[in-house]
From TrEMBL, chain A:
Species, as recorded: Nonomuraea harbinensis
Stored InterPro entries: HATPase_dom (IPR003594)
Protein name: Anti-sigma regulatory factor
Pfam families associated with the record: HATPase_c (PF02518)
Limits of the Histidine kinase/HSP90-like ATPase domain: 34-134
Domain of life from the UniProt record: Bacteria
UniProtKB/TrEMBL annotation, chain B:
Name this polypeptide is given: STAS domain-containing protein
CDD domains: STAS_RsbR_RsbS_like (cd07041)
Organism: Nonomuraea harbinensis
Domain STAS, chain residue ranges per copy: 2-113
Listed InterPro entries: Bact_StressResp_Reg (IPR051932), STAS_dom (IPR002645)
Lineage top rank: taxon: Bacteria
TrEMBL record, chain C:
Pfam family, one: STAS
Record protein name field: STAS domain-containing protein
Species in which this protein is naturally found: Nonomuraea harbinensis
CDD domains named among the record's database cross-references: STAS_RsbR_RsbS_like (cd07041)
UniProt KW keywords: Phosphoprotein
Taxonomic lineage of the native organism: Bacteria, Bacillati, Actinomycetota, Actinomycetes, Streptosporangiales
KW Transcription (keyword) present: no
Keyword Phosphoprotein: yes
Domain annotation STAS: ranges: 144-255
Length: 134, 123, 278
């Protein structure tokens, strides 16, 4: 299962497990119900991308604290094909598969910080942070 | 894969989603439901998502697909019980489920289906 | 650390041990804090000093707690800082009485240490106070945004004053929750009392209407002023098929009609079920 907040993403069941773990940690970080829901939804999208577009990978889930507020940081990484045109991939509706193309753009709107690093053949890393309001 | 039970109430099918659905179960539910609509000749489908804590683009698309599929099979669909946090998140994600009829709760959803068929189920 | 410094430092540690009662009493007077409260800090400091290469984590933890406690009790930042710096003066008096060169040199080292801890205390005090202010602002926000039930199945939010993005979000979340709690299928968002909106606020309003629809409820926006109408149009915000009414009364009449409630003769109201247009 989890190993220092690190979880594998290799199956549909793993995506569900990631959602549940992110929910638990979001509660621990003192997030409001709405913020919990947003970050869990973003996690679900990004975990599915790792599984579907990269054939698997992992995520690290951790609580962060900037002295004023607490939050959640999720780091997804995979060794899949990578993304050639990141700007294009972030556009709503853009997809190379059968999806709706809302995963990347949508999850960026649902979190406070969104950092995507990717290059063809070098896999993809996405680190997102969501702060608890107030 | 977990199966979501489909209940029959008169000529309405009721699906109450109580589990955290993985993608395979979502696809399974779509197929099961289409078969049941045809097999039972149901005129309406209520999807109760009161217990659902998140809807991402995959589950959102399932709701839209079920509604469109049922329309083709001559049945109306109502999605009931979406939580405020889920609704706000879905809008932010970029899904507004244009073609999907909604109601606040199961009772109102069933009543809405009755009205659609020109019957009054409240009396 | 050279040998001299080491000797000097050890002298201070000795003095902290032998004159502990005197120092504590004096510190307590200077800090205007009971001896008991300071004793724990004092012990933690001595333990940390005795430990070679201690990172002072324990004492920092205690100081953070002290700062938060003082914020809660409404102490000023200078009071809080004095509580720490008071120890310097108390120790200086003992050093002066000792008069030895080691003690004096050691005091310079000790003084720097306390300065660091004092600054740390002020910092945690500021952070804690900021948090209290943020919490209070949020509570105020909650209070100033009522969601009222206008009729069975109809709720309204009369918004007054400048809307910023945060406030709009809070109101809208409250509105959606009220729809669930009261089983209301209709909502009126009245912005008669709102002088202006920006893009973000207009977007929040729009998103709320869409979210309400997803939940099975319809919103009407009333009281859009000419300026706001102008803003919405010039910003190119798509209000699409959202129903808008001139006044709250118009909006209420409209929702009553929509929800199938018709006014009969006299005071009797008659509920008629309306078939929804497919
Ligand atoms: N982890 C990933 N590895 C490789 N490509 C990815 C990854 N995540 C996203 N992509 C690419 O970005 C596109 C957009 O992703 P997304 O917005 O989630 O839409 P969807 O998953 O529905 O296609 C995908 O179609 C895919 O081409
Ligand atoms: Mg995706």
């Amino acid at each position: 299962m989890t190993d220092g907040g690190r979880m594998p993403i290799a199956s549909n069941a793993d995506v569900v497990a990631v959602r549940q773990q992110v929910r638990a940690v979001a509660i621990e970080a003192g997030m409001s119900l709405i913020d919990q829901t947003k970050v869990v939804t973003a996690a679900s999208e990004l975990a599915r991308n790792v599984l579907v577009h990269a054939g698997g990978g992992r995520v690290t889930v951790e609580v962060v604290d900037d002295g004023r507020r607490r939050g959640l940081r999720l780091a997804f990484s995979d060794e899949g094909p990578g993304i050639a045109d990141v700007e294009q991939a972030l556009v709503d509706g853009y997809t190379t598969g059968p999806g709706l193309g809302l995963g990347l753009g949508g999850s960026r709107r649902l979190v406070d910080q969104f950092d995507l690093t990717s290059a063809p053949g070098e896999g993809t890393t996405i680190v997102v942070t969501k702060w608890a309001r107030g | 894969m977990e199966r979501v039970p489909i209940l029959k109430l008169g000529d309405i099918l009721i699906i109450s989603i109580q589990i955290d659905l993985d993608d395979q179960s979502v696809l399974g539910l779509q197929e099961d439901l289409a078969e049941r609509v045809v097999a039972t000749g149901a005129r309406g489908v209520v999807i109760d998502i009161t217990a659902v804590e998140i809807i991402d683009s995959f589950i959102g698309r399932m709701l839209a697909t079920i509604a469109a599929m049922c329309r083709l099979l001559d049945a109306d669909t109502v999605v009931v019980g979406m939580r405020p946090a889920v609704a706000i998140t879905l809008v932010e994600l970029g899904l507004s489920l244009g073609g999907v009829r909604t109601a606040l709760d199961l009772e109102k959803g069933v009543a809405a289906l009755g009205h659609l068929h020109g019957r009054d189920t409240t009396r | 650390m050279n040998v001299h410094a080491d000797v000097a430092r050890r002298r201070i540690e000795e003095l902290l041990g032998t004159s502990d009662e005197q120092i504590l009493r004096r510190w307590s007077a200077l800090a205007k804090a009971p001896v008991d409260e300071l004793k724990e800090l004092y012990q933690a400091l001595r333990t940390a000093l005795a430990e070679e290469g201690s990172d002072l984590a324990d004492i920092r933890g205690l100081l953070a707690e002290l700062s938060r406690d003082r914020v809660r009790r409404g102490h000023t930042p200078s009071d809080t800082a004095r509580a720490v710096f008071g120890l310097k003066e108390a120790v200086y008096e003992v050093v002066e009485a000792d008069g030895g060169p080691e003690a004096l040199r050691g005091f310079i080292w000790f003084s720097r240490l306390i300065d660091d801890l004092g600054l740390y205390t002020i910092e945690t005090y500021a952070t804690a106070r900021e948090k209290v202010i943020l919490d209070q602002a949020e509570q105020l926000l909650e209070l100033s945004t009522p969601v009222v039930k206008l009729w069975d199945g109809i709720v309204a939010v009369p918004l007054v004053g400048t809307l910023d993005s945060a406030r709009t979000q809070v109101v809208m979340e409250k509105l959606l929750q009220t729809l669930v709690d009261t089983g209301s299928e209709h909502a009126v968002i009245d912005i008669t009392g709102v002088p202006a909106v920006d893009t973000q606020v207009a977007q929040h309003l729009l998103k709320t209407v869409v979210a309400a629809r997803l939940m099975g409820a319809e919103c009407v926006i009333s009281g859009i002023s000419p300026q706001i109408a102008y803003t919405i149009v010039t910003l190119g915000i798509e209000f699409g098929d959202i129903v808008t009414k001139a006044t709250l009364a118009d909006a209420l009449a409209y929702t009553l009609r929509r929800s199938g409630i018709e006014f009969g003769e006299g005071r009797r109201t008659q509920i008629a079920i309306r078939a929804e247009d497919a």
